[in-house]
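pinging the channel bc i need a second pair of eyes. not urgent but kinda urgent?? the chain im working w is below, pasted from the shared doc
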Amino acid sequence: MGLSIVETFVAIFLCFGVTTHGNEVARYDHYRVYEAIPSSNNQLKLLEDLERSSDSLIFLKRGDHVGAKFNIVVAPHKLADFSEALRNEGIHTRLLEMNMQKLFDDEKFRMLSKRASGSFDFKEYYELDDIHSWLDNLALQYDQVKLLEAGHSYENRSIKGVKVSFKSGNPGVFLEGGIHAREWISPATVTYILNELLTSHDPKVRDIAENYDWYVFPSVNPDGYVFTHTKDRLWRKTRTPYPGGCFGADPNRNWDFHWAEQGTSSNCISDTYGGPYAFSEIETKSLSQFVTSLKGKIQTYISFHSYSQVLLFPYGHTGEHTPNHNDLDQIANATITSLAKRYGTFYTYGNIYDAIYPASGASVDWAYGTLDVKIAYTYELRPGSESWDGFVLPPSQIVPTGEETLDSLVTLLEKSRERGYYDNYTS
């Protein structure tokens, strides 16, 4: 069969991107993906040193202890050095993928085909302008929706969100998506939840929709998100230029709460670069000022990331437990139990430091520690930790991810309310 008009257009686009703009668009042709598991402290140190030393190695997944899995993208020109370094240290590797670029080409083909149809649904990932236009339309369509802006990015893009309120006097819930640019399932899940808050007839969803005020921001790192669609699919950070040809800081290591103490890098080429100082990034500074303006109103702060299927709560900078650790732990247990009922999706849970790895300067820790938001969680969404290509989650999983996450969010709020967390709220 011949190609359709849309398929022909996409094929031409892809070829044009390779031949004409190859010097501008990051491609991963013949980049390999390896799994490495350190079995000693020396092996662990080597992997950590490699992560800090080269931007030709991209760590899709990293551990912080012996026996943890590392999934590493290796540039073709780095293969010989990488293989020899690991072999000399006795680290065994497993080849997971020969050509990373194929995943991105397939994804781009689907997206362009879908975009040509002109619809906005939850069967594909969307670019920033599409998401913002959809938010604009919601504000026109629903009296309960008010457009919000929490500042602008370095490249002057709006940090756009909405407030959903069905009545006065409700405690506030803040949903933050897309702080890490390449984690596309995060904005997709946040927009799915927002849509359900407005359209679902499920009594439990209607209960949380109408008895809380919702502050929903699908993409709080807009420059980075655009960059993943136009230049580099694996970009994680902001796009602030820094000396030495570096760009961006990790916006989830940049918040002014125990900044740069744990799990962050001072090297600007690193994906976990915390920035030169706390709130160096205009995105985090602006968003923090907006949330601070709602101090007392916001009773729950939830950040959506991917991937690993983990529900996390403070702290990330220390293994010391929060004063309400037991409550957060029990709420998390009930939440992931609820999440698993629909599709059997298994999550783990715990405080950030112990459940995943030390990481300071995160938004959820800042909301908890600075604004006294005692119900603060981070979702690491699908897929599970056994996957290596989790940033390229197939769009067929957007709706299931949204459904099970909303199920769990209902439980999270119910269990928090049962423990009296919203009893003393006054608008």
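so The chain has 13 helices and 14 strands. and The CA atoms of residues 183 and 391 lie 5 Å apart. — does that match what u expected or am i reading it wrong
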